């Protein structure tokens, strides 16, 4: 459901129109929710500018253009990534477009070189607030002479943030003898246990965690508050915990994907107005229309994961063995060196009429909302977790890297809206391509069958979906959080602080 177009919350003044910039790290997992966030605030009366690289501007332009045509004050400002100055060749302007891990460092340098361009933008067109991606610390300090308040968009939930902060500060992982020995994460509201094999890169042995910790503290000092794509019923204890730990307010305004209605915004999300995207969306949804209710498992590992061919093969055979219907989004495209050799003909031979292969992109929010979908195999990126929660769909969690194992712990261990696929080790991003088989076909088949048949799991996920939708409605926790942030931006003296 779309939030009400009124400014802020029920007690706010409709005349206020704060000018706000939204700037994400250039990759779909960050840019998509930030685009939704910008439209959410525009729908509540803000004058919103979404700052993107040109490649992501092309992908995300459709919903923004439609919102502007409908009368909202929203636009995209496109920046050209200084790729050549960073030694980055190939025209890559989004992290998911990088053909290998080796280009990640020059890409990161190119992203840092956006800092003066963003500062110039702020000076030429000042704003009342900046919502910056938490992994872009330079956005928090650009044009300091203007005194513009900055709010950090965390990119993940408060549970994962709390876990990561505790690991960096207290390093309990250093006190265990092996990668598989469980340890307690200290200082959390719940007893959360992890292993070294399930930690994010910054806390792995040999990582420069001190540099990451310093960056974390720098962002904490610079931000006026945290903007989180989450909602109270999903992780209320951790929203309050993170406020106490950092001393900064948390504005939990999600799930932001619910700003998309049931029309073109949802069908084209992440692919602009491409004719091919519309055709692919129609193909996928038409296939789902022919399947019984809650009979399909949707399989997608986001825009960055690239499994080795052996793991892709085991996954495919497990899906076939499960007896379930499935829509399987395979990473990469036909020209990519990472594109696994999965063809529709292979799936048809192994699971006649039961499987649909999608290469690279699918209308994920629309698929998850479809009545035929009964479970979601996901890497547990936070965007995917919140989209599943919003749709009321159970998760089969298969984390791969970064904070994804922490998200699994929330979904499976605390919220009870998912089950674990059985992955016991993670990777540094890019390393999964050499990781061999982590989950075999038997486990895949068993977990898929079990999740689709688990009525209690389906009920808990459905209840979470209802709570998510209520959160964004007038008077809901997320609706009020949007209003509270707008009031914070507009309060007297804020610009001078």
Automatic annotation (TrEMBL):
Molecular function via GO: glycosyltransferase activity
Q: Which SUPFAM superfamilies match?
A: UDP-Glycosyltransferase/glycogen phosphorylase
- Keywords per UniProt: Glycosyltransferase, Transferase
Provide the E.C. number(s) assigned to this enzyme. Answer: 2.4.1.-
Which EC class heads this enzyme's classification? transferase
Q: Which InterPro entries match?
A: UDP_glucos_trans, UDP_glycos_trans_CS
What family does the database annotate? Belongs to the UDP-glycosyltransferase family.
Name by which UniProt lists this protein: Glycosyltransferase
Organism for this UniProt entry? Urochloa decumbens
């Amino acid at each position: 459901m779309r939030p009400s177009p009124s400014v802020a919350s029920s007690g706010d003044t409709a005349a206020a129109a704060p000018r706000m910039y939204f700037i994400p790290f250039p990759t779909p997992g960050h840019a998509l929710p930030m685009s939704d966030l910008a439209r959410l605030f525009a729908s509540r009366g803000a004058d919103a500018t979404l700052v993107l690289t040109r490649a992501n501007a092309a992908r995300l332009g459709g919903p923004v253009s439609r919102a502007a045509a409908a009368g909202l004050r929203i636009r995209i400002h496109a920046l050209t990534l200084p790729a050549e100055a960073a030694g980055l060749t190939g025209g890559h302007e989004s992290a998911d477009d990088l053909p290998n891990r080796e280009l990640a460092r020059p890409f990161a340098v190119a992203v840092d070189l956006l800092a003066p361009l963003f500062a110039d933008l702020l000076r030429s067109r000042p704003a009342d607030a900046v919502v910056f991606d938490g992994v872009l610390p330079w956005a928090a300090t650009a044009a300091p002479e203007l005194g513009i308040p900055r709010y950090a968009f965390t990119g993940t939930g408060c549970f994962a943030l709390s876990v990561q902060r505790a690991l960096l500060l207290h390093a309990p992982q250093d006190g265990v003898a092996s990668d598989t020995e469980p340890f307690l994460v200290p200082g959390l509201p719940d007893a959360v246990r992890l292993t070294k094999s399930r930690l994010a890169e910054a806390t792995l042995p040999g990582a420069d965690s001190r540099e990451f910790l310093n960056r974390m503290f720098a962002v904490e000092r610079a931000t006026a508050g945290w903007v989180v794509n989450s909602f109270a019923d999903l992780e209320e204890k951790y929203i309050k915990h993170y406020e106490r730990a950092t001393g900064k307010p948390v504005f939990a305004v999600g799930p932001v994907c619910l700003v998309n209605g049931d029309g073109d915004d949802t069908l084209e999300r992440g692919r602009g107005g491409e004719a091919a995207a519309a055709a692919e969306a129609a193909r996928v949804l038409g296939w789902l229309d022919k399947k019984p209710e809650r009979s399909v498992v949707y399989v997608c590992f986001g825009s960055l994961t690239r499994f080795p061919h052996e793991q892709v093969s085991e996954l495919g055979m497990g899906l076939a063995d499960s007896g379930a219907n499935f829509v399987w989004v395979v990473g990469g495209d036909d020209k990519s060196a990472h594109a696994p050799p999965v063809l529709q003909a292979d799936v048809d031979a192994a699971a006649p009429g039961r499987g649909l292969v999608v290469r690279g992109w699918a209308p994920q929010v629309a698929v998850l909302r479809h009545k035929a979908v009964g479970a979601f195999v996901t890497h547990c990126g936070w965007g995917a977790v919140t989209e599943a929660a919003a749709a009321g769909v159970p998760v089969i969690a298969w984390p791969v890297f970064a904070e994804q194992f922490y998200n699994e712990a929330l979904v499976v261990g605390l919220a009870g809206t998912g089950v674990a696929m059985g992955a016991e080790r993670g990777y540094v991003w890019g390393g999964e391509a050499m990781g061999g088989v982590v989950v075999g076909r038997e486990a895949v088949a068993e977990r898929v069958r079990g999740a689709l048949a688990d009525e209690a799991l389906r009920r808990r996920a459905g209840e979470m979906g209802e709570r998510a939708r209520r959160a964004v409605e007038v008077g809901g926790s997320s609706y009020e959080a949007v209003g509270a942030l707008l009031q914070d931006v507009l309060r007297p003296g804020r610009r001078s602080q």
